[in-house]
Amino acid sequence: MARVQSNYPHAVVVGLDTLNGIQTVRILARHKIPVIAFAKDPTHHACRTRLCERIIFTNTTSEELVQSLLSLGPQLKEKAVLIPCADMNVLLISRHRQELCPWYHIVLPEAEVIETLMNKLSFYTFAQQHGFPIPETRFLNSQADAEQAATELTFPCVLKPPMSAIPEWEKNSKLKAYRIANPAELLDYYQRSKAWAKDLIVQEWIEGPDSNLYSCNCYFNAQFEPVVTFVARKLRQWPPVTGESSLGEECRDDIVLNETLRLFRAAHLHGLGYVEIKRSIRSGKYYLIEPNVGRPTGRSPIAEAGGVELLYTMYCDTLGLPLPPDLEQKYLGVKWVDLRRDVQSALYHLREGDLTLKGWWQSLQGKKAHALFAWNDLGPFFGDLVRAARLYMIPEERNRRDYRNL
Predict the structure, then answer these.
(1) SS3 297
(2) DSSP states of 353-379
(3) What is the pLDDT of residues 360-384, one digit of tens each?
(4) Which residues span the domain enclosing 185?
(5) Handedness of CA 248, 163, 190, 138 (dihedral sign)
(6) What is the CATH number of the domain that holds 140?
(7) 119 near 198, Cβ under 8 Å?
(8) Is residue 188, in this structure, part of any structural domain at all?
(9) What angle do CA 294, 89, 110 make, to 5 degrees?
(10) Backbone phi, then psi, for 41, in 5-degree steps?
(11) Closest C-alpha to 78, from 390, 325, 321, 404
(12) pLDDT given at position 288
């Protein structure tokens, strides 16, 4: 592993074996910050990185993580900045913050804020109470709820679990949500997925192309004020319709920015925040889809590529160090791309006839941040390619990952 020669306190990154984790390590390493990372899966392609001083393997989704962090704490020369990279990591660290505080800087809002914003059930209630625009929403606790929603909602709609990273949901589905075409399909999907997550959510689908889905990454200081913000939008995703972004670009949209600021000020956010907002192609109205708090997101590096040092600003502000000089978005049109998944997305759209090879190539031009590819750290990118090829050779896995069967 690489050892960074630096006087900076360590950053401890929890969840290296996620896209958020490997990107966070690379951003911090560029600033010569020494990184110790925690991961659950030693075989994960991100664990091939050469940029960590040390990688500790433990169950990052259970109390075992807390014990591992407590064991590491006394070995540190000074308090480290603790950066969780997945929702379950955020919840665990938040719930054990008093035990961890002697050894780590915990850059999180109050526990009540985390629980409210991370659980979609409580978030949509919060949004309704504070007048934030959200799609028409129903909570499904029973078959009767599903039947009532089927008669009341306008279709298409989307069915999803109340939180990210629910083990049973992830075990059975590679999608974070299902797009539902009609009432019969809603009842069918509810029966199929009700055992995977308690209290499912169904919402009206906001019509519009991928490019109508905006996001705003931000960091709020301990006084609940925004220090940096960065607005972008999705261009393509994989799997199609309800997948994760494979290509995004920086853009200016003041409605998205102002709604993000209004939401997180109302919630008293401290730390990293992210909001997805979609503009309806029918009405032109903007709707809050969901927030993420307390952790980096997959597209955090687009801010760094655009000259806004999002994660480094959080690190410096937490330690009382001088902040980076450029804190305002300049709207340079930078992009973020996950090459392997964008190839898959492009092939799908080529078959659908709504993208040409020339159009795909042109969409990749310009300054950009990469999800996994990095010249100084090639291991994770090639590890991901090898893993994808191996899975494709297994019929059961290939069928499980076919978007048409999800």
Answers:
(1) coil
(2) TS--HHHHHHHT-SSEEESS--TT--H
(3) 999 999 999 999 999 999 999 999 9
(4) 136-204
(5) negative
(6) 3.30.1490.20
(7) no
(8) yes
(9) 40
(10) -110, 105
(11) 321
(12) 96
